[in-house]
Amino acid sequence: MLTFKIVEFDFKEKKTLEERKMATVGGIKEVDGNQNSLEIESLARFAVDEHNKKQNSLLQFEKIVNTKVQVVSGTMHHITLEALDGDKKKVYEAKVWEKPWMHFKELQEFKYIGDAPSGSSS
Question: Which CATH number is 75's domain given?
Answer without folding.
Answer: 3.10.450.10
